[in-house]
Structures are given as C-alpha cells and as structure tokens.
Amino acid sequence: MLFQALDCSASGLTAERLRLDVIANNLANVQTTRVPGGGPFRRQMVEFMALPLGGGSPGGVAVSAIVGDPAPFPLAYNPGSPDANAQGYVRMPNVNPTSSMVDMLAASRAYDANAAVFSDAVKEGRAALQI
Question: What is d(CA 30, CA 98) in angstroms, rounded to the nearest whole number?
C-alpha cells in the first residue's frame, strides 16, 4: 500500500512537471508569429489519462497526449511586420497569457499536493520501520 501511494503521487509529479513545461513553452512563444511548419505558434495543451487501480497497477495519472489548441489565431494590426497580410494584419499565436498563468498556478498547486502526499507517505514508511 505504501509503495502504491508513492507510485501514484510520483506519476502525478511527473505529469504536472510536464504540464508546467508545456505552459512555460506557450508563454515563451506568445509573440512567435512564424514557426518552421508555417503560421504562428499554436498553444499546446496536455491531456491526462487515469491509470487503472488494482490488477497490479498502482493507479495514478499519465500524459496521454500533447495537442494543439484549435482556437483561431487573433489578428493584430502591424503593417510593418514581414508576416503581415495585404491589409496589414498579422496572425498572432492563440496563447492568452492570463489564462496560461492561471493554468500554471493550477499545475503548480497540483504538483505541490502530489509532493506533500509523497512526503507524507515517506514519513509513514519511516514511522512503520521504527515500530
């Protein structure tokens, strides 16, 4: 049971760390109007899947995919940009810095919660060994 708790919280730590990395990459590219594949940077999102409990599996969470946000690209008027269309508008990345910061806070809190569970499980294991 102790090792299952450690495995479960460790999977949460790993998943939330990747989520934080993806959010940081989104924020770093908030002004990137041209990527190698063409067009502006598309916001990336992490999708999780639950790992089943029982049957030898400890449960937890895993990253199932990192997908692009299908939201449309906003337009910004900047006629001097090399990426501007004939009317002077540039397609900007679909990254909203405010919502990205909220996502980052949520991921950080989830990471902290998993770290606390992991720490408590280690403390319980040490206490059990002292009995």
Answer: 11
CB 42 within 8 A of CB 57: no
Alpha-carbon dihedral sign for residues 115, 118, 124, 125: negative
Query: What tokens appear for 97 in the block?
Result: 């810095």
Please name which of 24, 15, 61, 62 lies closest in space to residue 44, comparing C-alpha atoms.
24
Q: Between the CA of residue 107 and those of 20, 31, 122, what are the distances in Å?
A: 6, 23, 23
Say how far apart CA 107 and CA 40 lie, in whole Å. Answer: 25
Exposed/middle/buried for residue 51 (C-beta within 10 Å: 0-12, 13-18, 19+): middle
Do the beta carbons of residue 32 and residue 41 sit within 8 Å?
A: yes
Look at residues 94, 108, 89, 93 and name the one whose alpha carbon lies nearest to residue 20.
Answer: 108
Which tens digits make up the pLDDT trace of 11-66? Answer: 999 999 999 999 999 999 999 999 998 899 999 999 999 988 776 666 889 999 99
Asked if 52 contacts 4 with a C-beta cutoff of 8 angstroms, the reply is no
